[in-house]
Design goal:
By secondary structure, the protein is an all-alpha fold. The protein has a single domain, classed as MFS general substrate transporter like domains (Growth Hormone, Chain: A), CATH 1.20.1250.20. Helices cover 73% and strands 0% of the residues. The two termini are 32 Å apart. This is Putative tartrate transporter.
Length: 427
């Protein structure tokens, strides 16, 4: 909800109360992502050292406290410091969850669970924007944006405390499963990808994962998708205000593409498995680009609102599908920890770049921002198709040239990651 509450705060008094000019508006948003991006990889490495229950509970509680502190900031400098701290504590959450879910599910099972988890992004918009608008409408001694930060932060802290008592660390130590159920789950996971408790991170394997050219494609893909999500979640109210709606109505209307996105994610659950993941990602980005172009350069209020809605419809389901594609194509948990963190780090650079193109200085047309996002979407479609062709050829090569690795130990085979002769890329 942090993506939605800062966007709502911008149009509900934050800019005028703290005297934020275009430069400071950019800094307020960008500083969050500078710290978020810088600490994602160290956070995922810490996840391997700290029990998930402790780690995710700490992130949630710390986020809540800092979110509430934002309401107390009297100057832009103090507010920017709080935004930096918020980025630091939140850095371990999304990439950590992407690494944590495969602790429990096989490669065939992970896609559906990933979709459920990342449905929280449009849900945050659906819930967050109306709540923010409602809070901003209340007549209190506090400024509208202060109510947004205080109430949303206070609500989240309860979930953070609850997660410490509910969340389980590993299948092997899960308390709500019987011994027989744990044994079945552990055997299934071990056969599929190894166990999280046994996964090992080495400096050399980490370096190889970071500089793998395929990691670069995933980084650019997540960067592009984040461009789209940030446009809706952070600057949705700004875009609506540029269409001459009031501040409160702009906050409400920013919910519309989120609703469409949630519907699309639910529909995506029923896409037949025979439709490859890469084809889904390419198609959704291509359609999203078309409706973004209509939103940016179309004429008429109805056309632009309709395009904004369908832009959200195609963007939001691309998130879990793309991340599932990333996750299942890493040959082991250890590599997935590194690649997911790097991809999230590079992807969230979007949060430091996009804000420079959607400040009040560029209103109401925001041409440079729209062109930038459109260009990245077109490039991503090309890269996804190229990666799919590469995966197809690699799978054929392994099938036609079998290699015996039975002389290697289980640990040595796991360290082969994608190069293991039995590993096949998922299209």
């Amino acid at each position: 909800m942090d993506r939605t509450n800062i966007g709502a705060a911008f149009v509900n008094g934050l800019i005028t109360e703290l005297n934020l000019d275009s430069r400071l508006q950019t800094l307020v948003t960008s500083i969050f992502y500078v710290f978020y991006v810088s600490l994602e990889l160290p956070s995922n490495i810490l996840l391997k050292q700290v029990k998930p229950r402790n780690w995710f509970a700490f992130i949630s509680i710390a986020w809540s406290i800092i979110c509430m502190l934002q309401a107390l900031a009297k100057t832009s400098t103090v507010f920017i410091v709080f935004r930096a701290l918020l980025g630091a504590v939140e850095s371990g959450f999304a990439p950590g969850m992407l690494a944590y879910l495969p602790y429990w599910y096989t490669r065939d099972e992970i896609g559906f669970r990933m979709s459920i988890f990342f449905a929280s992004i449009p849900v945050a918009g659906i819930i967050g924007n109306p709540i923010a608008a409602g809070l901003a409408s209340l007549k209190t001694s506090l400024k509208p944006y202060q109510m947004i930060f205080l109430v949303e932060g206070a609500a989240t802290i309860l979930f953070g405390i609850a997660s410490f008592f509910i969340l389980q660390n590993y299948p092997e130590t899960c308390t709500f499963l019987t011994i027989e159920e744990r044994d079945v789950l552990v055997k299934k996971l071990k056969a599929d990808q190894g166990l999280a408790t046994k996964a090992k991170l080495s400096v050399m394997s980490s370096i190889k994962a970071i500089f793998d050219w395929k990691t670069g494609v995933y980084c650019f893909g997540l960067f592009t998708i984040n461009n789209c999500v940030n446009l809706i979640s952070i600057f949705g109210p700004t875009l609506m205000k540029a269409l001459k709606f009031s501040s409160v109505n702009s906050t409400y209307l920013a919910t519309v593409p989120c609703v469409a996105g949630l519907i699309a994610i639910i529909i995506s659950y029923f896409i037949p498995k025979r439709v490859p993941l890469y084809a889904r990602v390419a198609a959704m980005n291509a359609m999203g680009a078309i409706f973004l172009a209509l939103l940016a350069f179309g004429k008429g209020l109805f056309l632009r609102m309709f395009s904004f809605t369908l832009f959200g419809f195609f963007v939001y389901p691309a998130i879990p599908i793309f991340l599932s594609w990333l996750s299942v194509n890493q040959g082991g948990i250890a590599k997935r920890l590194i690649v997911s963190a790097i991809a999230f780090s590079c992807g969230n650079i979007s949060g430091a770049i996009i804000p420079t193109m959607f400040t009040t200085k560029h209103a109401p047309n925001f041409v440079s921002g729209f062109v930038f996002i459109l260009s990245s979407m077109v490039i991503l479609v090309v890269l996804v198709l190229a990666l799919a062709i590469y995966y197809t050829k690699e799978n054929e090569k392994k099938t036609n040239n079998p290699i015996d690795v039975s002389h290697l130990s289980e640990d040595e085979q796991q360290m082969m990651y994608n190069n293991h002769p039995q590993f096949r890329y998922t299209l």
